[in-house]
Write a structure and sequence with these properties.
Blueprint: H1 2-14, E1 31-41, E2 46-61, E3 64-76, E4 79-91, E5 96-105, E6 110-122, E7 126-136, E8 141-151, E9 154-155, E10 170-173, E11 204-207, E12 211-217, E13 226-230, E14 239-246, E15 255-260, E16 264-270, E17 273-282, E18 290-292
Parallel strand pairs: 10-12, 11-17
Antiparallel strand pairs: 1-2, 1-8, 2-3, 3-4, 4-5, 5-6, 6-7, 7-8, 9-18, 11-18, 12-15, 13-14, 13-16, 16-17
């Protein structure tokens, strides 16, 4: 059984490596989200592993673009490791990705990682990479196999930071978000809305520090947004608040402004409707507001 799992994972991670001749469009000075999952294997056991990190690309040097890791985590079974000192680069115009460095467990144990990813396939706003590599803990060394998605974001032409009016930096909570896109007043069989890409007009945002974003509630229910850490393996408690951001109740038709003073990586969610979430990247030296739209409900 274990052999079958390993072979299946290897097939998924490696499919397209040699047949795919396209390469990802990686831009300079841009924020990305790298997220995915797979297996970590030793001679004695197989555990699931996840990766979720925010990265920011730097200037291009030949066919290589180095990137900084801002925030995120890697899991190894039930253990979660926080990003502490990682370096990475996109190689050969984005065809390959290399990540090396250290992560720190909640118990303070230092662990090193070394990952190498190859482009498998891509769409206009995201790319799929297969990763292999190692996670080395004080007690053991795990071989890892990941399938990941690198999400890209589209830039707006000109948006001023420190915005105080609802302009292009506004994000709308979409109608029927509280009911997952279903109109409860519609006739039977016609309650589902059209295909939804999310529950906000934009659910991934990259901005400079000290930028203000206006959240406008177009839904029929009131909402509250707070920041927190996402618990991927806990359906009953999907988020843990981190105390960084908390809004007042946003009633239908009302709005609230959120200012992001410090650089960092933020996840905003509604505790009453946890499928509603926004990822916010706050990085210095960006030239404009960047807004992106996820591909799955609640992304």
């Amino acid at each position: 059984m274990r052999t079958s799992i390993i072979l299946l994972a290897l097939f998924v991670a490696s499919s397209g490596y040699f047949a795919n001749e396209s390469f990802a469009e990686i831009s300079e000075n841009q924020a990305y989200l790298l997220e995915g999952s797979g297996f970590a294997v030793t001679e004695e056991l197989i555990v699931t592993s996840e990766i979720d990190i925010g990265v920011y690309s730097q200037n291009k040097q030949g066919s290589m673009i180095k990137f900084l890791t801002e925030d995120g985590f890697i899991t190894l079974g039930e253990e979660e490791f926080i990003i502490s000192n990682l370096e990475g680069s996109f190689l050969r115009e984005g065809r390959y990705v290399r990540i090396n460095g250290d992560v720190e467990s909640t118990n303070g144990f230092d662990t090193s990682i070394s990952f190498f990813g190859r482009l498998v396939s891509e769409s206009k706003d995201a790319a799929v990479y297969g990763f292999t590599g190692r996670i080395t803990t004080p007690d053991d060394t795990f071989k890892v196999i990941y399938t990941t998605k690198l999400s890209t974001l589209s830039k707006l032409d000109s948006v001023s930071t420190k915005s105080t009016t609802p302009d292009a930096s506004s994000i709308h909570i979409l109608k029927y978000s509280s009911t997952k896109g279903i109109n409860p007043d519609a006739a039977p069989g016609q309650q589902s809305s059209s295909t939804r890409l999310g529950f906000f007009s934009h659910d991934r945002v990259s901005i400079e520090p000290n930028t203000t974003i206006t959240i406008i509630n177009d839904d029929l229910a009131s909402h509250t947004l707070i920041s927190g850490i996402e618990n991927y393996n806990d359906r009953h408690n999907p988020f843990t608040p981190d105390g960084k951001i908390s809004t007042d109740v946003i009633k239908p038709g009302a709005s609230v402004m959120i200012t992001f003073d410090d650089a960092g990586f933020y996840r905003l969610y509604d505790p009453d409707y946890p499928w509603m979430k926004i990822v916010v990247y706050v990085f210095p030296n960006t030239n404009s507001l960047v807004l992106g739209q996820g591909q799955n409900p609640g992304n």
